[in-house]
Structure formats: structure tokens, C-alpha cells
């Protein structure tokens, strides 16, 4: 199969070569696994990526040599743990173009979105004093999302609207899986207080026009939250250049461990937001009736932190940085194009979202006529091919596109062209196996 055209105009750097990918794969022990008698073909990195040895070693090294509570003890080991923990924050901040004090550790991106939603809710209850008044929501105010959001960037805003009396509105999706930007100009209006949207869709792969959407929000004085779960692992992202107020992403999608997520927020916003979780490690003075809170980011990090996970995430960031995010993006653009071109040649396959030539990340969700997505996934799994099936935590988007479930194949820096070709060849067998004729 010969496919050479790039998928995205963004990907102008020199792509990783096949021989470089072969060396990269040596850093990922799990890729040597056999599944059902076949070599593992892992095409589910959009859900959870695999971990290089350096990431696993970073977490193990912490437990072997520095394990102690951070920001608490006055002994040498505690100082060493705190130093490594805060160095990890600085590494992650630099990776996305942020200041160190603009990074808040969370358990995952879902918690990060909820942190913002509940902080706005607390402000709406009057917490945070005068400084937090600008965050208050009530009847007549509007929160805007899009029809393509992952549930993690939809349900928290539904709940915030219910708690505050605000109205939730959404920017619709067009038939090709892209946002209706003409409609966006009418949905985002003078009552909009917050615009929350995904940078790249986890279902259709669309890369949304951040600058255009941010401009709509800025014109009406609204805050902007960016779901960067599918962009930070795959594209060079500079949050300062994008001018978003908040951004969230998860470690487990970018070579890091589970249990660690990141909230980016502009320092001046964090300074005025009331906290969400409260308890130890985020306070200065406490009596039996009142408490005073630390400055950000510690104000938003109550309790014992995800210390080893943060350190391991920093190791993942180092790995991605050394490999080169622009080169990773360019490689995935090639793989994504190969994936889409191959899917378009298979009878009965309908790819969800924009087709060849559109700007999108290296994943594809599709429907195979006459075969349920779960049956497609099971057949592929028998051949050692791991894909995602279901609604991918995006039921409204699937409903808009006329399907209840889809099969998703997603690539990453360790994916080979042979793996994409094997997936496509095996997929061709599925419909005949189930007796479906095109």
C-alpha cells in the first residue's frame, strides 16, 4: 500500500522515519506482548497510551529513593520528594508554554474540568469574596459547549448550570463532523460567561479552530476552557499562544501513568478562584470556624498528592520532548492519512468526520454496515489488534452522526505502517465473516 500525502497542513516538520519508530518501540516492553497468539497491534492510544521504560523507572526510582510526603516534612527525604515533585510541575509547564504556578495537579482531566466547574459554583455561592465576584453565574447567564464534546467536558457544565440557574447552550456539529462556525457566532453571545470546547475530537479527529473560537469568547468577555486531552499528546501546544484561560489533559494519554492529570489556568484567574477540594496542605491558618488558604497552585491541591505519578509524567514529557512533538505530529499525519485512505477503500465502511485532506489527528472512527462495532472489535481482537468500540464517551456526537456506536483506531509515535496495513487487511475480513454483503 502506497500512501504518502500528509493528513494535516500543520504537520510540516520531518516525520519520524520507520527505522526511528522501530528504535522507539524498543522502549515499550508491552509491545512485545502476544494476544491470542498474535503480536499485539495496539491501536487504542486515543484511550490510553503505553509507557516507555523511562517512565516506569522514574516512578520506581521515587519509591526506592525519595518516598515521602511533599510540602510537609522538614527532613531530608521530604525535601528531596518536594524538590522532585515541583521539578515535575516545572517540566510539564514548560512543555505547554505555561508558568510553573499555572499548573495544578489533578487525578485526571475529568477532575480538572470538575475543579473549574465547582470553583465557579463556589464563587456563585459567594465564596472567595470580592475577588471571585467575576466568576459568579446565575439565571440569565449562559455556558456554551459543543456537540462533539467528551462527556467529561459536557456533564460538569450541565451540573453547573443546574446548580446556578445558568443556561447550557451548544455549538452544533455539521454532517462532516466539523463545528458549524456560522452557528457558533450566534450561539456565543453577550450572555455567554464560559466557552468550553475540545481542541481535537476523540471521535472524529477534527482539530478545532482555537483562535476563531477564542476570538468569539473574547468579544463578549467570556472565559475559555480547552479540553486538550487529544492534542497535548500529539501536537505541539502552547497555551499562552492559544490564549485560553483554562486547559486540561491527562497523563495516561501521553506516555504517562494513570492517576495524574493537569489543569492549566492563567495565574490571575487561579489567584481569584475559590478552591474546590479543601482539607490539609492547602491552608495557612485554621481555627474551629474559619480557614485561610494558600496561594495557587497549592490552594487547589488538598490532601496527599499524586507524587510518583507527577514525577513519572515529567519523565513522559521528557521522552516526548526528546523525540520532538513536531516530528510526532508529522508522523501521525502520515499514519492518519494511510488509515483514512485504506478505510475509504473498504466496502461498507463509513468514516465518521472529515475525510482525506482535512486537518485532523491520527485516529479514525467508523461504522461498518451490517456489523455492530462490538463484533468488529472482537474480530480484530482475535487477530491481536486492539481498538476502541462503543460511543467513546460522546453519545451526543454519535447521535448527531446517526450511529449508536463506532469502532476507533488511533495511532501514536510507536505505531508502524505495517500495523495500520494489518488492521486494514483484517478489517476487510469482518463483513464476509459475518455474512454481510456489500
TrEMBL record:
Molecular function as annotated in GO: cysteine desulfurase activity; pyridoxal phosphate binding
Alphabetic keyword roster: Pyridoxal phosphate, Transferase
Superkingdom in the source lineage: Bacteria
Known cofactor(s): pyridoxal 5'-phosphate
UniProt-listed PANTHER family: CYSTEINE DESULFURASE, CYSTEINE DESULFURASE 1, CHLOROPLASTIC
GO biological process, one term: cysteine metabolic process
Recorded family membership: Belongs to the class-V pyridoxal-phosphate-dependent aminotransferase family. Csd subfamily.
Catalytic activity, as annotated: (sulfur carrier)-H + L-cysteine = (sulfur carrier)-SH + L-alanine
InterPro entries for the chain: Aminotrans_V_dom, Aminotrans_V_PyrdxlP_BS, Cys_dSase_SufS, PyrdxlP-dep_Trfase, PyrdxlP-dep_Trfase_major, PyrdxlP-dep_Trfase_small
Known EC number: 2.8.1.7
CDD domains recorded: SufS_like
Function: Catalyzes the removal of elemental sulfur and selenium atoms from L-cysteine, L-cystine, L-selenocysteine, and L-selenocystine to produce L-alanine.
Entry protein name: Cysteine desulfurase
All copies of domain Aminotransferase class V, residue ranges: 42-423
A Pfam family recorded for this sequence: Aminotran_5
